[in-house]
Amino acid sequence: MPSAFLPPHQPVQIVLPDSTAIPLVCDSPHSGTDYPADFGYAVPLADLRKSEDTHVQWLWNAVPTVGGTLVHATFPRSYIDVNRHERDIDLTMLADAWPGEVAPSERCITLGNGLVFSQTTARSPIYARRLTASEVAHRIESYWRPYRHALAHLLAGAAVRGPRWHLNLHSMPSNAYERLGRVAPGPLADVVLGDLNGSSCSAIFTEMVGRAFRSRGYTVAINDPYAGQDLLREFGDPARGHESLQIELNRALYLNEQTRELLPRAQDLRDDIAGVLQDIAAHIRGVTNSHA
Questions:
Q1: CA 284, 290, 292: angle at the middle one, nearest 5?
Q2: pLDDT tens figures, 62-114
Q3: CATH number at residue 281
Q4: 135-141 contact pairs (CB < 8 A, 24+)
Q5: Of 168, 166, 167, 175, nearest to 250 (Cα)?
Q6: What distances in angstroms separate CA 104 from CA 74, 93, 205, one per listed residue?
């Protein structure tokens, strides 16, 4: 694959198309596993790792093969979550005054999953101290902002000649409903597509991606239990032809959720995703050719 245009130690890795480029940008914001030295967490690393979308960028490695660009974070979401708004801050985490505005989300308050996580997925406090405002500001400036700027730049470039497509890539724990404090209406789907309840992506594209997974034997749900977060709100605008779709994969399909090691069947899922990407690329070429 082509080299990323940022060096390996940077917070964002970008893999450019290795075939004729199409206006497709895929990003994995939560699969980073490089834990910064200044994190200062006070829980076992294994507990923190349960919030990772471990190996998601590996599962989607065929993105450049079909002409898309693959973006992924190198740092963990528990350090700072690039899929949260920069004002999604819990002031009770801080030892001193925050200089800007804050607007903590419900998940930030109830689950401790805001811009900077305060709790593990098991609801244990991550820190035995309060963070300073300068620590949080450093994480925003050195990690959150470079990732968001890189993704925005790539999506703007993809849309120069018309519509563009954005896949926001994730994995979900097999006990997702329990983790969210919800009663499961039935078994968790293999794949959950989130389009912010129709506001970040056209129904046509959401349905097309759903068919691509179903045709390969996977169960698919729409917006249940995840409809999407801030990256879809930022970049999805189907009225302008800006399609942003979140894709959640059930971790039980490919991952030992305790050890974070790949299961033997992970390669089958990876191969199926490569096929889904071929279907998506064909759809995109069909749409872009009609606009030519």
A1: 100
A2: 999 999 999 999 999 999 999 999 999 999 999 999 999 999 999 999 999 99
A3: 3.40.630.40
A4: 135/38, 136/89, 136/94, 136/98, 137/99, 138/38, 139/79, 139/80, 140/80, 140/86, 140/115
A5: 175
A6: 25, 12, 31
Q: Are 250 and 190 in contact (CB under 8 A)?
A: yes
The position carrying tokens 């939560």 is: 30
Q: Confirm if 66 and 130 have CB atoms less than 8 A apart.
A: no
* Residue 219: HSE in the Cβ half-sphere, 13 Å Cα cutoff: 9
Instruction: Answer whether residue 105 is part of any domain.
Output: no
| Residue 85 near residue 30, CB atoms below 8 Å | no
Structural domain span for residue 182: 12-83+136-291
Is 0.85 surpassed by the pTM of this model? yes
Task: Please give the backbone phi and psi of residue 153, each rounded to the nearest 5 degrees, phi first.
Answer: -65, -45
Q: How many domains does the chain have?
A: 1
Short-list 189, 245, 250, CA closest to 26: 245
68 in a structural domain: yes
Summarize pLDDT for 225-250 with one digit per residue, the tens: 999 999 999 999 999 999 999 999 99
Distance CA 16, CA 132 (A): 37
What is the C-alpha to C-alpha distance for residues 270 and 259, in angstroms, rounded to an integer? Answer: 19
34 occurs within a structural domain: yes
- 75: in domain: yes
